[in-house]
Amino acid sequence: MTKSIQIVLIILIISCGSVKKGIKNNIDETIIGTWIIEQSTFNEIGSPVPKNTTLKFTDDNRMMITLPKFGENYEDVSGIGTWKINDRMITIEYDNVKLWGEKQSWQILKLTKDKLEWEMKMNDGIQKEKYNRKK
Description:
This protein is α+β, with helices and mostly antiparallel strands. The protein has helices spanning 2-31, 97-100, and strands spanning 33-42, 45-46, 54-57, 62-67, 77-86, 89-94, 104-111, 115-122, 125-133. The chain is built from 2 helices and 9 strands; from the N terminus they run αββββββαβββ. Strands 1-3-4-5-6-7-8-9 form an 8-stranded antiparallel barrel. It is globular. The N and C termini lie far apart (56 Å).
């Protein structure tokens, strides 16, 4: 009888680990694609993220952000880097550290097949952004 209980407990422990891994993979798979900014705020006030900004996440953990007409001469500005998700935190490391900074960590507030909402805490406030999946 005791061996039966041990076997059941081992199966339950293994099953729980698989469920957690499945949830992580679903988050990773859901974020893959191209997103278009809907709203951006800094400390609940509109922020300078341009309309039509896009984020693109690929399944090889690469990403690109494009800010239209954001450059010095109103040219588009893009950042390319890598991404990873851990417990609803997405960390982005940009290839061009001088322009984009070393690393950004965003808390995912909402992620569905059509919506992405996240926030990043900074020294002087909180940046929140909402995106719609590009169709």
